[in-house]
Design brief:
The complex is a heterodimer of chains A (about 290) and B (about 1050).
Chain A (H helix, E strand, L loop, with lengths): L5 H5 L5 H4 L9 E6 L8 H10 L25 E8 L20 E8 L7 H5 L5 E3 L5 E3 L10 H4 L6 E2 L6 E2 L5 H5 L5 H5 L5 E5 H17 L6 E3 L12 E5 L19 H25 L3
Parallel strand pairs in A: 1-10
Antiparallel strand pairs in A: 1-8, 2-3, 4-5, 6-7, 9-10
Chain B lengths: L10 H7 L13 H4 L4 H4 L2 E6 L8 E7 L2 E7 L12 H4 L1 H6 L8 E3 L7 E2 L2 H18 L1 E5 L2 E12 L6 H13 L2 E5 L1 H5 L1 H11 L16 E5 L3 H4 L1 H12 L3 E6 L4 H4 L3 E4 L5 H14 L5 H7 L22 E2 L4 E2 L21 H5 L28 H8 L5 H8 L3 H13 L7 E5 L1 H4 L4 H14 L10 E3 L8 H4 L6 E2 L3 E2 L9 H8 L9 H13 L23 H9 L5 E5 L3 H4 L3 H9 L3 E6 L4 H8 L1 H5 L10 E6 L8 E4 L4 E5 L12 H16 L8 H4 L7 E2 L4 E2 L1 H9 L1 E2 L17 E2 L34 E2 L27 E4 L4 E4 L77 E2 L21 E6 L15 H4 L6 E4 L1 H6 L7 E5 L4 E8 L6 E3 L2 E3 L1 E5 L20 E2 L11 E7 L6 H14 L10
Parallel strand pairs in B: 7-8, 7-18, 9-10, 9-14, 10-11, 14-15, 18-19, 19-20, 31-37, 32-34
Antiparallel strand pairs in B: 1-2, 2-3, 4-5, 4-20, 6-7, 12-13, 16-17, 21-22, 22-27, 23-24, 25-26, 28-29, 30-38, 31-39, 33-34, 33-39, 35-36
The chains are: A alpha+beta (about 290), B alpha/beta (about 1050).
Amino acid sequence: MSDESPIDVFLGGGDPAASAGHEQHPPRLGFFTDTSICIGCKACEVACKEWNGVPEDGLNWTGFSHDNSERLSGDTWRHVAFIEQRAPLGGHQPNFQRDGDDGDFRWLMASDVCKHCTHAACLDVCPTGAIFRSEFGTVVIQADVCNGCGYCVPACPYGVLDRRPDDGRVFKCTLCYDRLEVGQEPACAKACPTDSIQFGELDTLRARAGERVQELQEAGVVQARLYGHDPDDGVGGDGAFFLLLDEPEVYGLPPDPVVTTRDLGRMWRQVGIAAGALLAAGVAASLGGDR
Amino acid sequence: MPKLPRPSDWPALRQLRGDDRLARGAAAMSPHTRTLRARTADADRVVKSVCPYCAVGCAQNVYVDNDKVVQIEGDPDAPHSRGRLCPKGSATLQLTTGSSREQHVLYRKPYGTEWERLDLETAMDMVADRVVAARRSGWEWERDGARTRRCMSIAALGGATLDNEENYLIKKLFTALGVIQIENQARVCHSSTVVGLGTSFGRGASSTLPGDLQHSDLIVLEGSNMAEAHPVAFQWVVEAKARGATVVHVDPHYSRTSALADVFVPIRTGTDIAFLGGIINHVISGEHDFREYVLNYTNASTIIGEEFGEAGVDGLFSGFDAETGAYDPASWQYEGAFVAAASGQRDQEGELSGRVPPLADDGHDPSRPPRLDPTLQHPRCVWQILKRHYSSYTPEMVERVCGIPQDLFATICDLFVANSGRERTTSFVHGVGWTQHTIGSQYIRCASILQLLLGNMGRPGGGVMAMRGHASIQGSSDIPTLFDTLPGYIPMPHAHAHQDLEAFLAGDAPKGGFWGNMRDYMVSLLKAWWGAAAVADNEFCFDYLPRLTGNHSTYDTVMAQIAGTVEGYFLFGQNPAVGSANSRMQRLGMSKLDWLVVRDFSLIESATWWQDGPEIESGEMRTDELKTEVFFFPAAAHTEKGGTFTNTQRMVQWHHKAVEPAADQRSDLWFTYHLGRRIRERLQGSSDEADRPVLDLTWHYPTEGAHDEPSADCVLAEIGGFDADGELLSAYTQLRDDGSTACGCWIYCGAYAGGVNQTARRKPKEEQNWTGSDWAWAWPANRRILYNRASADPEGRPWSQRKALVWWDARQGRWTGHDTPDFEADKPPGYRAPAGATGPAAIAGTDPFIMQADGRGWLFAPAGVADGPLPTHYEPQDSPVTNLLHRRQRNPARQTYTHENNRYHPDPGGPGSEVFPYAVTTYRLTEHFTAGGMSRWTPYLSELQPEFFCEVSPELARERALQAGGWATLVSARGAVEARVLVTDRMTPLRVDGHTLHTIGMPYHWGPNGYARGDSMNELSAMALDPSSHIQEVKALTVDIRPGRRPRGPERLALVHEYCRRAGITETTGMQR
């Protein structure tokens, strides 16, 4: 993303806050969620709802492990996923005595959230300016501007966004924008009992995450990897990235997310070329006619 | 008319004029966005508080704006919680300010079908009238020739969620009224811990703090689901892991705790003594013990009297009376000595054996140490007895009994051995998975023995971390709304012939150690309660205390209610219809009451059973035929009152009042104080001797505010104690037995040291070491790790630098270190007790267990534990497996109850045993809290776990045709419930003695009321108790499970009866000793 062509500027390349007109902005802030120490307690879900006044979205027992929140939505801005698998996890020994089984088992738990992408498709497509890039590099929806058109909903490559059913507008994680402004950390990061959700300057978090992944791999957790940390990925890297213990698909995350507006520039260029060619052909035809 | 934005505000213009040409950031921000302010920044004030949920006691900051609480979140300054909160703590704002809290007093008249509104003051007057009347009609001066001076017609339950000051006033007032049937959640939760740890080490509370787990090399979580029940404390386990510790989780159920453990050990529920006993056997036979520690700090070398009969293959110790079903522990005593226990069963010897215990001048010289054999060869020394006792607990037996394969067992044994000794320490973390058994006290004893053998007690990263459950359940044990103790674990006196203060002290107080000063503590307590009326001539009003004549636990009280002898009952923030064993019996008991007072946030099941309980649904009871008068008083939240909570690490934290309670909501302090005031007014001028304790009671606390709220500060000051000049005391060593000091709870003496409320101290974690000793105050005397003298060798040097905690500084002539020494600061290691020394003077410079009569950790408990001096494996009351280790199937001394609604299941392998073939274990989910009163009405928590479900393995689901996501009905001899079916690999079948055993997991939070509703698991459980702690067995039982929803109406009970008939259950089933 080193070209600063107008299209790249349009797509918010490089320093997202600066590209969004924030002069002298603070360092970019974000989340590093180390799922290897998540205990699946859902303090993050509750702390988020408490702080942001997000309504409870119904009693719905799913029978799907301990996940009754199911997915991120307008009413669930933090969602803890639970994955039970008959698969090994580093040195973890469950010692189950199952007939005809080598006894591997692991229970993966992870708190999902809006990724606050560097290249945020929701921001790109929002027609009202409700979605904006903050001075902290985060992506925030202004509820007083949003008209509920829903364009952002299919734009998100992670499926984070959805309308609130009885309201119509789209809501999502704000990375506690109001708290950041007064120097407080987001509610979920503050509450997290094991510090699985870590908040801070993105550069610092990325460095720490790199060390943690290495530490885990050396301890035998060979499947540990980072997700969303890479500025060269399809969304330019996430402001909220993760340490996962398996493939992203296992967690319900897209393996290779791409900002859905990535090809817009190229598409419009081709449209322009086609239009130009059509125009040229039309002119040629009309000039060459009537002989 | 809304203000129109100025043109300079228009986004389009800002877009054109500023740097944000595409309006993707700065130009797109609305005025609302640009003026956004976090409400935490603009609040009028921030009030320091403590989470009201579990016993981790996370510090909370309460933000108040315009006299309303607008936010509650963690306090980052706190050393123990570091600003974090679990989902429940995070929901505190909704809990305290949400719409589910009742605002007004509600009243149900006898035979009434609906609630009515009732004026608060009128309701208080009516309750006071009823107390006075019930007291008169239920008064008893004596029983069987012994003075009892009590009222058996009133009982109270609760509360571990109350402040210490509230529990103090409840115990004080009710005891003065002669009421002895006072209980709270501590009974049903960690009472076994009090017995087990107290008899082993001298104090029945957690020996360490969660923050110390970061120093452990091995953490064994057993009988605990720490990550779910205590998430914020679990951060210290994660810290330990980051430092290279190994974490083992032993449990019948793979939980979120297991997911983060290095090793999970699936164990059959109810068999931990076999498992731990096997490890003890391994340590002893392989000589892996920390020998120098064992010889110097435990009673391993003590010789036991020759009358002692070992349990052997039969599983019965000497002294058992088959008729009473109880042991006389006299034959378990040390040879030539009589030592009393520091905890557990006391003051009962006289009753059991018919004789008064020997006094000091009876030839038993307390300063003469018991006979010892330091070579550990004498056949009757504790070491040899211990060795023989556990010799049958082999790895083969552990595999057969517990279902733990031998190679896995060997791995665990090796881990214990490798992580104990001078350089490394191991800690146990336990919860109610260990305590809630008919042999629960012995579970704790077993872990205690192992920790003593390995030398882990009193050492950093060692100890036994008892994780208690409620915000102040440690406090409600210390300052007890419990029947069998007075504040500070002084035993309640039993009714004996010629009982007086001297006889009481002689029978109850260990002669050596700090219990040797029980007289100081007792007299100071009596002075606190009866003030000027308590003088030397009347033994400081000792006679005012009502007496016990046996067990008066909550379950005994329920039986008394059913028998019709209890007229009135108070529930202070406790919900026995869901949280106590045998829900049906709880409701039946309440249906026999004349009146019931419920204090809570919402209409819990224990308040509405008369209107919509299962017996109404089935038609067995009709609302208009139930005479119980019911008063519901809405309670104030912790944000609406000041007071202290004592958390699981004995830390007493003051929480400040943030706002006034609304409408009729009042604190339990207000309720108890004004109830007492009214009762005293009604008894004013009475010439009845029975009323003297009430009228002489010190009951004048200053009140403040529009509601006349009594000062919790003053109550705490009374608890901490003051001298004759009114000066606040700083240490319990200042207490005197001459009436010059008054102290409501001797172990809390020091809470107001120097006139400063030590519990309100809040020095941030960055400014102190890891013990956090300058944050709040811990009992005793702000010592954070108990028995820490044991972290140094007999000469006073740390066993290793790596594990240094406290040590003797010879130059200064004092003990010093990272923690406050749990030892007399200036007693040198070389001190030996002179002949005739008693009390603390009898404790040598090498005796770390200063509350014990002999200063030693007890491997063998000669007193205090009702079912034996050594833990022995017995099967649970309802078990699908025969006891393979001993002939006695069940604990011979367990407490059982005969009642048609409390039937037990048949013996395994016998006729009818196939009717309830599956084991059940119960547990908590992190999203809910205990019996649900604080989570099932809270939407943010309810939506996380909305329904009652059971967890079954795929194998069991196939066997019983259970549909994943469908319904199942579970049946026991006591009841039938329905639950959603969660099929999960986390439940696996076990191989137990060659057979496959299935276990069903059941979280127990649900009841039919509230927002998240479901059946109560305790419809299935029976009342069968541990004889020392009187705790119920709900961690191991048996059931049948079948697909589909349960029957409604009368068919529900018919199903239960059908099962009982098929199983051939009678009133004697399962009752054999």
